[in-house]
Amino acid sequence: MRIRRFQTTAALVALVALVAAARAQTPVVSNVAGLSGTGDPAEQTAQPRTVADCIKEIKHPTDWLNWGGDFRVRNEYYPNTVSLSKDAPLNEQDVVRYRGRLWASLTPLTNLSFNGRVAAEPRLWVKPAFTASDVGNSGMEWRYGIVDTLNVKWSNIFDQPISLTAGRQDIMLGDYYDWWLVVDGTPDDGSWTLFLDSIRATAEAKGIQTKFDLIYIQQNAQPDEWMPTIGSTSFVHPDLNARTDYQLTEQNEQGVVAYVSNSSIDKTKIDGYFIYKRDNRQRFERLGVTTPMGDNANIYTLGGKITGTPMENWQYSAEGAYQFGTKEDNVREDDVLTFAQRDIDAYGGKAKLTYLFNDKYNCQLSLNGEFLSGDNPKTTGKDEMFDLLWGRWPRWSELYIYSYATETSGKFAQMNNLIRFGPSWTCNPTKGLTASVTYNALFAPEDTPTRTPSAGADAEFSKDGRFRGHYLQAVLKHQFNKNVSAHLWGEWIWEGDYYSHRDVLSFLRAEVMFSF
User: Rounded to whole angstroms, how far apart are CA atoms 399 and 2?
Assistant: First the structure.
C-alpha cells in the first residue's frame, strides 16, 4: 500500500510536469484581426510570442535588474535507512518537501552586482518524523524562511581578471558534480540551502593558464545568528511541549581555503589546495534539554587532483588529501562515550575512469572508487577518521547520508571509514531524458565505528565485519524545457556483516522542479 501511494505520487508529479511543459510552449498572440490592434496585415502576420518570451521580459525588465525563482516538490520515502533496522521505532519515513526560492540581482555599475535570494521549505510528514524537532509527529512542519544568498560581487577589478565576492554565497570547488570537500556549509537543513558566509577572491593568470582562489569562511551553526530569519528557528513539539532549536550545522566554523587550478598541460588539469577548518562546539535546545553538539577542532588538509582526457573516448579524475591537526569530540571506547582531544592523522581519496561511446544516445560507462579512512579504536590519543569538512552532501548517495547519523553522533553525511567501488552507466534515450544505473560494493577499513552516540546505536554494528553491503541506484531525469524538470530516484542497500542486521535499506524519491 505504501509503495502504491508513492507510485501514485510519482505519476502525478510526471503528469504535472508534462502539462507545465506543454503550456510553456503555448504561443501568446497579442494582435488578432477583429479582436485587437488596427487590423493592419503587418500586425496580423507578426510572429506570436511564446510564454517563454513573456517570462524573459518580466524577469529582466531593465538592464540593471534580473530576478526569478523556483519551486521544488519532493516526495521521499525511506524505510530502515535512518534506524538501520526494520524493527526500530520510527524506521519508516515518508515526507513531502516544498521548497520555494526567490532571487534578484542588481547591477548598478558595470562589473558590480548585488545578489540576494530567500528560501523556505515546509515539510509534510506522512509518517511520524525521526527529526529531533518533530520526532514522532506527523503532519505539516512549517519551518522558517532564510536569506540563503546576500552578497556583493566586484568583477574585472581595475580591468584585471580578478573578482571579489563578499557575503552569503554558494561555493563549489572542483569540477561540476565532482565536488568533494568544499560544497555545503549547511548540511543539517537537508539540501534546502548550501551557502557559506564567506569572502572569495579569484584571480586568473591567463599566460600560465592558472586560476587562484582564496576564501575566508565564517559559518554559524544557528540559522539566525548572523542575520534574522523569517519566523522562529525553534520548534515547540505539539505533544511534548518541549522546544528544539533548528541548526545549519553542529558547530560554529571558521576556515581558509587556498585553491589553485592549472590547465597548461594539453587535455589535463591539475588542482592543488590547502584548507584550514576550525570548529567550535555549540549548545542547542533538544526537546527542552540544553545539549552540547559538534566538535572543537583545528583541521589542516593538503590535497591535489588531476583530471584529463588522454584519448577521444576516455576521461579520468583522481583526487587525494591528507589531514592533520587536533579534534576534540565524543568517541566511544569500550562502550564508554568520552570527550577528549586527539591528534588527527587521516587521509582520503577518490578516482573515476569514464569511457564515452560518443553515440547518438550519449552513453557513458564509468568505474568509480573512493577511500575515506576510519578511526582505529586501538590507537590512544590519535584520530584516523577522515573529515569531509564542508563536503557533507549527497555526492553519490541520497540514502547513505542518513545511515551515517547512527555512527557519527548524529552527523548526517559525515562519511568516513569507507571503501566503495563499482560501475555506473548513463545515457540519454530521448531528448531531455537521462537514465543512469550505479552499483557500488561498500566496505569499512575499520570494523568498529567509534562515534556512535549511545549504547543502543552501538548495538546496530556487529564490530566483527567489514562489508557494509551492496549498493544499487537507478535514476530517471527529464528536462522538459528550461523551466520544468522532474526525476524519479531509487536507491537500495543490502546490509553486510558490518551491521548487526541484514535488512534492506531503501530510498525512493519523486521530484518536480519549476523555475521562473
Answer: 18
CA–CA distances in Å: residue 171 to residues 59, 155, 186, 277, 416: 24, 16, 12, 15, 22
Question: What percent of the chain has a predicted confidence (pLDDT) above 70?
Answer: 91
Model pLDDT, residue 22: 43
The pTM score is 0.89
In sequence order, which ranges of 263-374 are alpha helices (DSSP H)? Answer: none
- pLDDT for 18 equals 43
Question: What is the rounded average pLDDT of the residues 109-127?
Answer: 95
Q: Show Cβ contacts of residue 207 under 8 Å, excluding neighbours closer than 6 positions.
A: none
Helix H or strand E segment including 73: strand 65-79
CB of 262 closer than 8 Å to CB of 296: no
Question: What is the predicted pLDDT for the residue at 15?
Answer: 44
Residue 57 sits at φ, ψ, to 5 deg, of -65, -40
**Close Cβ partners of 158 (under 8 Å, ≥ 6 residues apart):** none
For residue 411, give the nearest of 193, 226, 248, 182 by alpha carbon: 248
Query: 476: closest CA among 428, 426, 436?
Result: 436
- CA 45 remoteness from chain centre: 49
All cell numbers assigned to 173: 570547488
Cβ neighbors of 12 (< 8 A, separation 6 or more) are: none
Please give the backbone phi and psi of residue 26, each rounded to the nearest 5 degrees, phi first.
-70, 125
pLDDT value of residue 89: 81
Per-chain mean pLDDT for the chain: 89
Say if domain 60-515 classifies as CATH 2.40.160.100: yes
Element (H, E) at 256: strand 251-262
Could you tell me the residue ranges of all domains in the chain? 1-59, 60-515
